[in-house]
Amino acid sequence: MIKGAPLAIACAKAAAEIQAENIRVWDMRGVSNLTDFMVVCSGSSMPHLRAILRDIGDLVQKEHSVKPFKSEGKADTRWVVLDYIDVMVHVMHQEMRDYYGLEELWADAKEVAWSE
């Protein structure tokens, strides 16, 4: 089973395939006890957010046989978290992302390089 950084990168690449915007991956070990890795990406509309969520879930399950343990929120709320236990994927409308400032909140986390 894929876990940790490889799973976070797989989620980021799945988001990139559906044109999610501003995709970032952070190593949260030593910064937060919630999870080991965070992936954050943005969508520009409700249909785009739904497509990002669908494709991350489908592609990661198809290619790596991993499903989220749980998800929190709905596309209509403009912020959904897919919880893979050691990886949390935040899919947010850009407006919500700007408002909550997760990048500033996790400024101590090391960003993980990945390529689209």
List the helices and strands and how they pair.
Layout (H helix, E strand, L loop, with lengths): L3 H14 L3 E7 L9 E7 L2 H19 L5 E3 L6 E5 L3 E7 H7 L1 H4 L4 E2 L5
Parallel strand pairs: 2-5
Antiparallel strand pairs: 1-2, 1-6, 3-4, 4-5
Helix pairs in contact: 1-2
Give a short synopsis of this structure.
By secondary structure, the chain is α+β, with helices and mostly antiparallel strands.
Give a description of the structure.
The chain is of the alpha+beta class and 116 residues long. It has one domain: Beta Polymerase, domain 2 (2-Layer Sandwich), CATH 3.30.460.10. The protein has a 6-stranded mixed β-sheet with strand order 3-4-5-2-1-6.
Q: What is the strand arrangement across the widest sheet?
A: 3-4-5-2-1-6
**Unreliable runs, pLDDT <50, ≥5 residues?**
none
Oligomer: single chain
CATH superfamily: Beta Polymerase, domain 2
H/E topology pattern: HEEHEEEHHE
Q: What's the helix count?
A: 4
CATH architecture: 2-Layer Sandwich
The pLDDT mean sits at 93
CATH fold assignment? Beta Polymerase, domain 2
Strand content range: 25-35%
Strand segment count? 6
Number of domains: 1
Q: How big is the Rg?
A: 13 Å
